[in-house]
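Thread: quick sanity check before group meeting

JM: Hey all, I'm pulling together slides for Thursday and realized we never actually wrote out the predicted structure for the chain we discussed last week. Dropping the sequence here so it's in one place. If anyone has concerns about the input, flag it before I start.
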Amino acid sequence: MIDEARALKVAVDTGKVVLGARRAKRVAKGKKARLVVVSANCPDQELRTMPGVKVHVFPGTNAELGAACGVPFSVSALAVLDPGESNILSL
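JM (edit): ok, ran it. Output follows.
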């Protein structure tokens, strides 16, 4: 089983990740995202059903998702463009 929090942190540190619901939606619609991660309490329901993009619902809140990414603010959604050294795409 993959440790989601660790995989997210490694992806943010070594890969290319876009933080924020609006930015994640923009790159997902542009078919640039390989994975979209959405917090359990994300208010934007459209992000959960992005066609052509794999979507993973993080079991925690947006504050917990931000902490898992290693940033000092809440993150309701993020898009992974390049996983770097992370195994995040196997979620």
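AS: nice. The chain has a mean pLDDT of 95. The chain has three helices and four strands.
JM: adding both to the slides.
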